[in-house]
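Bench notes, afternoon.
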Amino acid sequence: MNYLKYFAIILIGVSCFGQDRFEDIKVPHYGPYFKQWEEKAKQGDPIAMLDLFEWAEGMYNANTDIPLSPVGVCVEWQPNAEKLIHQRVKVLADKGNTTAMRMMGYFSQESSMARDYLKKAANAGDPYAILDYGGNLGYADPERDKMFDQAAQIFILPYSVETKN
């Protein structure tokens, strides 16, 4: 009877602590829409892994024309995959990768650390970070309008009208 208890303890231990390296993360299979991210994730790209993980967890909001969850796919990640992915994205952000900096900013919008990463990415010229950082500033903050104007100059072409006489 004791053997059964030991077996149960070992089984639980292996399932909880078996994956503790980023390289060991198994990327679940996704539908055709997510094929490009899936390929990059399987090659070890932490940003692609994070994108897939967030889709799997339903973290993206409804303000998009993209489906809210993987099409026709049930996704299962290892228990500590999120922590390992976040650690790897932070390593990239600390090395100056602006996309990783922006993603670090998304991890916790109320965190000063997250805001610092967004600010670094915005200062580095990442247009989405400029827009997101501006959105995190208070309405009365004069920097907010400057950030939105800067983002508009990147995203929107100037309007010009040609007239014929």
